[in-house]
Amino acid sequence: xxxxxxxxxxxxxxxxxxxxxxxxxxxxxxxxxxxxxxxxxxxxxxxxxxxxxxxxxxxxxxxxxxxxxxxxxxxxxxxxxxxxxxxxxxxxxxxxxxxxxxxxxxxxxxxxxxxxxxxxxxxxxxxxxxxxxxxxxxxxxxxxxxxxxxxxxxxxxxxxxxxxxxxxxxxxxxxxxxxxxxxxxxxxxxxxxxxxxxxxxxxxxxxxxxxxxxxxxxxxxxxxxxxxxxxxxxxxxxxxxxxxxxxxxxxxxxxxxxxxxxxxxxxxxxxxxxxxxxxxxxxxxxxxxxxxxxxxxxxxxxxxxxxxxxxxxxxxxxxxxxxxxxxxxxxxxxxxxxxxxxxxxxxxxxxxxxxxxxxxxxxxxx
Length: 366
Description:
Layout: E1 6-10, H1 11-26, E2 31-35, H2 43-51, E3 56-59, H3 62-70, E4 77-79, H4 88-94, E5 97-100, H5 103-115, E6 120-125, H6 140-148, E7 153-159, H7 172-189, E8 195-197, H8 204-208, E9 218-221, H9 223-227, E10 229-230, E11 235-236, E12 245-258, E13 281-287, E14 299-301, E15 307-311, E16 316-319, E17 332-337, H10 339-347, E18 352-356
Parallel strand pairs: 1-18, 2-3, 2-9, 3-4, 4-5, 5-6, 6-7, 7-8
Antiparallel strand pairs: 1-12, 10-11, 12-13, 12-17, 13-16, 14-17, 15-16
């Protein structure tokens, strides 16, 4: 794949990020699930996370979980997306735990688990305001009692999702709802719940500020370990590395061109109408990287004087006018990635992956 865009991955810094997150959470009695979906569960990155102290893995795609199992990664695994009814066989066979909100799916998981003589762990998801998955708070006790009666499954705890749909931030109040529900269930059912899963990277701010409610004992961390950022809270996490991933693309044209298109205009190839401002002639570089390769809005130039003007299916156009040095055909332009950018770049077969840093290997058991 010579000449294609390259995603450079610093494994040692990912290991360090994982270790820092695990250590800080352990101080609060919190177990970290390392979320692998953000990089399509590329096994080199998974092993870097494990080397950093992440024991329990989690992913939203059964396809990723199956691939990790094929690569002899046998760490406990949680399926983070509500199981498809059509896929309960694989869920029970390859995932130790799944998050759930539909009793019919849980019953189907139980049937499979009973047949193959396994016990499948259930985390019941509760909606505390973000309005993605989860049962309503007033229904938790009733559903928990139903789960308790289903052979083959074990209700191990409650969980919630924050920030991913409604952008609701985790707080002492909404996470405290889980703690209150846990106490109610344990009293009413005479049954101990081992896990209270209080969200993901956005909950790390509460950990940092010593505000995480006592009793939250699991967080599902992906973005923080991978990028050292927290999109929901719109911040860089100061005690983590941000330079873990870098994407480069080759310059295939450099021209001085007007900043305003000429002629009658319709929509672009993706059905959008773009507004342009006339700022005169600008020097522009076209890169061999387009929307078919990845989600371009998930990129930002590492050179502050560059500006991404837009892109098509095959090209990205960058304003390089204010750069002090000359850019030539064949040069590379480098970008950092946001979490959505990392999602798409990791999954793209048009982007080569290159790994930097091997020091973490000495920490592994194999």
